[in-house]
Design a protein that fits this description.
Helix content is 30%, strand content 22%. The longest helix is centred in the middle third of the chain and has 20 residues. It has 14 helices and 20 strands.
Length: 432
């Protein structure tokens, strides 16, 4: 009886969850023309009175609306509105957890320290209610990233309107993510140790452990492979350059050590995530063409002697030095907060970043960092028609109000579990 009751509850939860999902949009069957909007191209350029046309999932024309060419298919009058490429979030864990308080819904961290063969791709839940809540803010693409350990695993890039992970994937296994050790540590105060920050005597050993692992993987790949090692085989893309190594690291010493170690073992396609202190090693980053995925600005500085507003100025400091910068999402409540990525870009704009460069950080730059800039990230002929129309400035939470959104030319639903509840209770209040 008890078991039957539990199974009934599980069945009810599944049925309610599935019923709440919006059906993914079908393949684009007719052309669209968006006319009159201010187009933010994602490369720093703007067309004030634009004409954007797309068919079969691809952009066919991007230019001024004064062009006399015939409009294709359904014409959307977007005068007074704004068009943007779909916003892109690197370093996110969307679809890998639904309710943080429920262990059974969390699938972002596997047991073990060195797990390059663990793929976030196959754990991704395309029907997550958290995932669908991204779309009304213009967040249409995300790099789904595992967490934990020293080498967390392999990420993939997904579009956020799909039946399953196979439909969602637009770049499979784009990179491997590694958490770099810190050179300082604090004592465990709960054991009576001094909690003051002090050098970690194990830091050199931790670096050597990482270096040894990659050297063994390299030797394995160059050998006869008679004894199969899935973890070592998963690193092949790092050595031939087809995959990026995302190093999650902060501190100028740690960033320098991480880059030098990676290059010493033959890994050259590198991205720095977090990157506090990256401005102090800007020359090293530029020399090796290494971009930085910064965290959201809404946080306190890492060090006691940092300026109080340093996190808010980080993006401008790095951009001014010539470093390619994107905005990632990691930390407390990261999955729910991912929808706010345009507003984090807006915050960086408020602290000195040019508004179009702020847009670029979550469009063109993000696409470049993830290796998908040949498909998305900017509004250019031949690229995927992944874009949206906003009634106002999409980096401002007051005016980021979407009227239409498209992924690969498919007109997607902007309804979510949350918008349904909002409409329900708004009606209840207004009816009174």
């Amino acid at each position: 009886m008890k078991k039957h009751f539990i199974y009934s509850l599980i069945g009810l939860f599944i049925s309610v969850n599935v019923m709440a999902q919006q059906t993914p949009a079908p393949v684009q069957s007719s052309a669209y023309s968006i006319e009159g909007a201010t187009a933010h191209l994602g490369n720093g350029k703007v067309i004030e009175n634009s004409l954007i046309m797309f068919n079969n999932g691809k952009l066919t024309f991007v230019g001024p609306a004064t062009n006399k060419m015939a409009r294709q298919g359904t014409v959307i009058n977007a005068k007074g509105k704004h068009v943007y490429p779909g916003f892109i979030v690197p370093n996110a864990s969307l679809g890998l957890a639904e309710v943080d308080a429920v262990r059974a819904t969390r699938d972002f961290d596997e047991v073990g320290p060195m797990l390059p063969h663990i793929r976030s791709l196959i754990a991704y839940n395309a029907e997550s209610k958290v995932v669908e809540s991204m779309r009304p803010n213009g967040v249409l693409i995300a790099e789904i990233t595992p967490r934990g350990g020293t080498i967390s695993g392999t990420s993939s890039v997904m579009q956020l309107d799909a039946w399953n992970w196979e439909d969602a994937a637009i770049k499979v296994d784009n990179g491997i993510h590694m958490n770099w050790p810190g050179s300082f540590t604090r004592g465990r105060w709960w054991l009576g140790e001094d909690p003051a920050l002090k050098p970690d005597k194990n830091y050199p050993k931790n670096i050597q452990r990482i270096k040894d692992y990659f050297m063994k993987a390299k030797q394995y790949l160059a050998g006869d492979k008679s004894e199969k090692n899935l973890a070592y085989e998963a690193t092949q893309g790092l050595f031939n350059g087809s995959q990026k190594l995302f190093i999650h690291v902060s501190g100028h010493k740690e960033i320098t050590d991480a880059i030098n170690t990676a290059k010493a073992v033959g890994i050259n396609n590198i991205v720095i995530a977090h990157g506090d202190g990256a401005d102090k090693v800007a020359d090293l980053l530029i020399k090796n063409n290494i971009p930085v995925v910064v965290d959201r600005a809404h946080r306190i500085p890492d060090n006691e002697d940092d300026d109080y507003d340093l996190p808010f100025r980080t993006a401008k400091i790095l951009l001014d030095k010539g470093i390619t910068v994107a905005i990632g999402m990691e930390g407390q409540m990261e999955r729910m907060n991912t929808r706010n990525i345009p507003f984090y870009a807006g915050t960086y704009a408020a602290y000195g970043v040019d508004k179009e460069k702020a847009v670029q950080m979550i469009t063109g730059n993000a696409a470049k960092v993830l290796g998908i800039d040949d498909m998305v990230g900017t509004l250019e002929v031949g690229k995927d028609a992944t874009l949206f129309i906003s009634k106002g400035d999409a980096l401002d939470m007051r005016t980021n109000i979407l009227s239409d959104a498209f992924i690969q030319g498919r007109k997607i639903s902007l309804e979510t579990h949350q918008t349904k509840l909002w409409k329900r209770y708004d009606k209840k209040i207004n009816d009174k």
